[in-house]
């Protein structure tokens, strides 16, 4: 396609290579991130994912040998004819090599036509695309990321398609696409990791060994060749650098980390009040209740049904008094209906996508005949941001954007549907995968503008970089054990793909949940960043009290565990917005040298310190748990266990195996009915002795004042020989801080405690001791036994 190298020029961080047929650009974003670009469809460089890169000067050498050799302090990139590239690390080890041979698909034998007639799926041969990138594979690679996909953690042997898809049938491993498109893969080989991010919004294909064992394949039909090679060598660094490019989830409001109760639909004021009262009566902490499509007046977005919700504002303010936030669904489809304000405004201003003849395009979704706002236009996004206020001014606290793949009932949107695209008109093929991304960008901007608070948006469709605007959920799963099991690798890979704030419908959306399934699901949900029970119309009620007393008890236990852990989760979000690491993580992220962790599908870490090994099979009363090397403490029994091996754990229905890494401090809050940061005057420190530092972050949990410095940062330095020393330092102190600290020190019995030199009261319990100190304590010296 490119031909032979003619000549090249160096320009700042870039080298432009002129080939016989095209030109290619190689640009260093940092010493370990390199972008490869070639204008194929047009000359314009434009990204929906990468909004700004700092453009620091990167120093690199250019020499010529068998190819053009570019060398930074981290990488050696060798560019050849045909724009083939080979990349070495600084030790001159080959990391990635373009494949030069012919495509050699595995042989597929069979009488295709007859099988197809019977209704079986036939796997088509290799796809040919206009733009193709093939990289050599040796068979020793592990693949992670790729956003929200079915199948296991390691994507080796799978093929995926980037095309946002709403398919309500049960998600299974043969699905090549779901609702989100994140064209980013992390490759781990010989203990070294790198990422490939193909920033092109057109329908694209990733084949990671399904077609052949000799190469991986990326293909796309349109747009430009535009991809980033991101060297780690740790997975952590790959994720950090990928999110440096595409952005990070900003600090959320604290309440969004609480428990959320949803249903398709709580469709009247009475029903909503009933659910709210029940949550309080049953002592199940909860921060948010969702209104699904039936709250609207005939599915007209930015309206509500006056009969079923005659006192909408009063409902919301009453719920507020009970400590609930309300999140309302808003779909993109605008009902075609003269006299309906949103439709009239959209039509008269030309805000809807048009067909190739310039006529506003109509398809069908919930409201019947509907039109699609063109979110690729800044003006439309501004209008949409302003529309949010219709709901926000009533007290609604968050916006749920669904159906934004975009979905349609009368066949797919035509390929030649026209979009404004910031003045560079284009068609549906380019916009499809970013339609939801652009919609939630507008929603988030509206919430920020009208509430002044950190926006909470939840979306089904997404593209690379959507994490800047919205949290995501994984769409219409089912109440299957299989889907509980699958949600773990799916959420872990979403996290590695930048979507730190993610969750699956707890209990399953479609189909009927059972008490046992719900009990196991809440044991997972309690740790997923988004913690929301949601279920479909016509399925049996799925609120925690609709099964039996045992289910209700287990549910309460894990929701309360979640509420205890809130400050730990919030600390993870505070770190995340600086480095981009997800909240729930596959073990390989922290134990990259331990091959036992490479394919752990049913265990995860919460941050670095909590390991969760949930039960995801019906009736399973024991399970194997892999503990990486080091010491781990069983969260329930406080037993200390030597890692680097598998152990067997009993798992009665109310027990989810949880382990805390020795040398951890897990900050806790007292559990209340809901989260109110102003009430959190006491921090409880669940301490597992060791030698380490822990940083704890505190702010008002809702506003942007932290950006003006109104927050606290505490450093806890723990040293444990025989004696235990805890030093508390206020590294930054500009917010109304805690009134006391309660330390719960596990597996340690104290004999004497000195706080800043004064002898201090403490209390030994069975396997730990408890100590309460004032807000200004600086140094705690403990002599005793344990640790
Ligand atoms: O199924 O708004 O994924 O969460 O409850 C049709 C109704 C449309 C799909 C979403 C689901 C939501 C439902 N929606």
Description:
The protein has 4 domains: 1-246, glycosyl hydrolase (family 31) (Immunoglobulin-like, Sandwich); 254-332 and 381-572, Alpha-Beta Barrel (TIM Barrel); 584-660, Golgi alpha-mannosidase II (Immunoglobulin-like), CATH 2.60.40.1180; 676-786, Sandwich (Immunoglobulin-like), CATH 2.60.40.1180. The protein contains 12 helices and 51 strands. Strands 1-2-3-4-18-15-14-11 form an 8-stranded antiparallel beta sheet. Strands 31-30-28-25-21-20-19-32 form an 8-stranded parallel beta sheet, covered by helices on one side. Strand 23 and strand 24 form a beta hairpin. Bound molecules: ligand MIG. Residues 264, 292-293, 329, 402, 460, 475-476, 509, 534 line the site of ligand MIG.
Largest sheet: 8 strands, antiparallel
Structural class by helix and strand composition: alpha+beta
- CATH topology annotation of the largest domain: TIM Barrel
Radius of gyration, taken over Cα atoms and rounded to an integer in Å: 27 Å
Cα distance spanning the termini: 64 Å
